[in-house]
Amino acid sequence: MTTAPPRPALVQFGVLLAIGSYATYSWGDAIIKGLGQTVGMFEIGLITTIFGMIPALFAKPRTERWRTSLKLESPWRMHLIAALRLNSSVMITYSFITIPLAEAYCIVFLIPVFITILSVLVLKEEVGLDRWLLILVSFVGVMLVVRPGFRELELGHLTALGCAISAGFAAVLTRQSAGSESRLSLFLMPTLYAIAFNAAMVLAFGGAMPGWWELGLMLLCGLCGGTGYLLQIAAITHSPASRVAPIQYSQIVWALILGAVFFAELPDALSLAGLAVVVVAGITGIFSDGARARLAGRFAEYRARKHGAQPEPVPIPGPPEI
């Protein structure tokens, strides 16, 4: 029995939810950048993570229980995922604070590239020539923005790259664990790591208590992260992942707007060209994956009709993780 396709109205609603999700994420990132001028990055990480749990708690599946969330099928893998996600979070926080938002996003959008490479090396998946060409184009786009050797690189550029690599490893390991570990475990473990690490750093290096204005901004930032997560889950629920995934690149637009309005970050023409190359390559990769999945599905239906069997569902690729 085949699953009925989603109604067009629900698909459009899911797309609107995705637009809201990535806009919310972008505003949260801009708040982090603003806070970084007066508040330590570990204080930001600690308090925003705690506040970010408030809306995210509503995404807990009814069939899962808090008391069993730390009963892990593969403890070493889950601890490695949590450590990698913590590393990517700390690194991208530093990048947001020290380099333009658009440049940080551009480098972080290499995450799908690293996921593809690691999927071949770790999961032994097959990748076609078109995918490797798009990977090469994405690297060219990033080089146009960063221009190593032609401009001074900052540590924030390297931490953004480190974030992309760590997030890529974490995504591949999460893909391996998704069938055996609960969604609550996958959410809770990185959160606990983030709280413990940032609290330890604050205690080790000291930190001043933020003022009420900074605390209010941290609350807003945490709510942005948690709300963006809920909107993203709802978007994928109502719309095919292949329709939601390209909208993630709207964060580049938000980065340009927020960077220009609040931080006087105005990229030059070559940087804009590089950003456009990264966005086009990413969206092309997503749509090519979706087209390949649809062709495979139609071929499966043809074989099923020919042999009188039910077709097997073909998975639709999900959005790249950030």
Compact description:
The chain has helices at 8-35, 41-56, 75-98, 101-108, 111-121, 129-146, 155-177, 183-205, 212-238, 241-244, 250-263, 269-307. With 322 residues, the protein is mainly α.
Describe what this molecule looks like in 3D.
By secondary structure, the protein is an all-alpha fold. It has 12 helices and no strands. The chain has helices at 8-35, 41-56, 75-98, 101-108, 111-121, 129-146, 155-177, 183-205, 212-238, 241-244, 250-263, 269-307. The chain is globular, with a radius of gyration of 20 Å. Residues 309-322 have low confidence and may be disordered.
Tell me the series of helices and strands, N- to C-terminal.
Answer: HHHHHHHHHHHH
Q: What is the end-to-end distance?
A: 35 Å
Indicate the percent of residues in helices: over 70%
State the secondary-structure class: mainly alpha
Overall pLDDT confidence: 82
Shape: globular
Query: β content, as a range?
Result: under 5%
Q: Largest sheet at a glance? A: none
Number of strands: 0
Question: Which key terms come to mind for this protein?
Answer:
single chain, 322 residues, mainly alpha
Question: Layout of SSEs?
Answer:
Blueprint: H1 8-35, H2 41-56, H3 75-98, H4 101-108, H5 111-121, H6 129-146, H7 155-177, H8 183-205, H9 212-238, H10 241-244, H11 250-263, H12 269-307
Helix pairs in contact: 1-3, 1-9, 1-11, 2-8, 2-9, 3-7, 3-8, 4-7, 4-11, 5-7, 6-12
